[in-house]
Amino acid sequence: MARTGRRGVAVAGGTLALALTLAACGGADDLGGGGGGGGNDGETSAGGGTDCAAFEEYGTFEGESVTLFTSIREVEADQMQDSFEEFTECTGIEVVHNGSGEFEQQVVVQAEGGNAPDLAAFPQPGLLQRMVRDGYVLAAPDAVEANVDEGWTEDWKSYGTVDGEFYASPMLSSVKSFVWYSPTAFEENGYEVPETWDELMTLTEQIAADQGSETVKPWCAGIESGGATGWPATDWIEDLVLRTGGGDVYDQWVTHEIPFNAPEVTEAVDLAGAILKDDNYVNGGIGDSRSIATTSFNDGGLPILDGECFLHRQASFYEAQWPEGTDVSPEGEAFAFPLPGMTADDRPLLVAGEFVGAFNDREATQAVQTFMSSAEWANTRVEIGGVTSANLGVDPELATSDVLRQAIELFQDESATVRFDGSDLMPSEVGAGAFWTGMVDWINGADTDTVLTQIDAAWPAG
Question: Which CATH class is domain 178-350+415-457?
Answer without folding.
Answer: alpha beta
